[in-house]
Amino acid sequence: MSYVDCMIAAVPTANKQAYLDHAQLAGAVFKKHGALKLVEHWGDDVPEGDLTSLPKAVQCKPEETVVFSWISWPSKEARDAGMQGVMSDPVMAENPMPFDGKRMIFGGFDIILEI
């Protein structure tokens, strides 16, 4: 069964191109290590809620934009092996994140429905 990783982060709006450059390079590395697809989304209509919301989850500041990304893998086993490869790939060491990674949230998910 397919497996998906997702990530949500607050990126300085002024760093949009730097983020895109980072993501393009990272995407190539993820695919090299077995990812099927990497998709990046730049926030457009991401309201801040009263109790919970995506902006609150990543402590988004007024000068930042929420981004949402996902990576599909053939299986959790492929993801686990692929992530080890990505984390040890020297290209990633030379591709710093253009945002505060401490406020990034992420997780891996089994796909239970795809229509």
The residue-averaged pLDDT reads 96
Estimate nothing, just give the exact number of structural domains.
1
The oligomeric state is single chain
Overall structural class, as computed from helix and strand content, comes to: alpha+beta
Strand portion, in percent?
A: 25-35%
- Sequence of secondary-structure elements: EHEHEHHE
Termini separation comes to 15 Å
CATH class: Alpha Beta
Total beta strands: 4
Percent in helix: 25-40%
Widest β-sheet, arrangement of strands:
2-3-1-4
What does this structure look like?
There is one protein chain. With 115 residues, this protein is an alpha+beta fold. The protein has a single domain (3-50, 61-66, 74-110), classed as Alpha-Beta Plaits (2-Layer Sandwich). Helices cover 33% and strands 28% of the residues. The protein contains 4 helices and 4 strands. The chain has helices at 16-32, 54-57, 76-88, 90-93, and strands at residues 3-12, 37-42, 64-73, 105-110. It has a 4-stranded antiparallel β-sheet. It is globular and about 40 Å long. The mean pLDDT is 96.
Tell me briefly what this model is.
Helices cover 33% and strands 28% of the residues. It is α+β, with helices and mostly antiparallel strands and 115 residues long. The protein has a single domain (3-50, 61-66, 74-110), classed as 2-Layer Sandwich (Alpha-Beta Plaits).
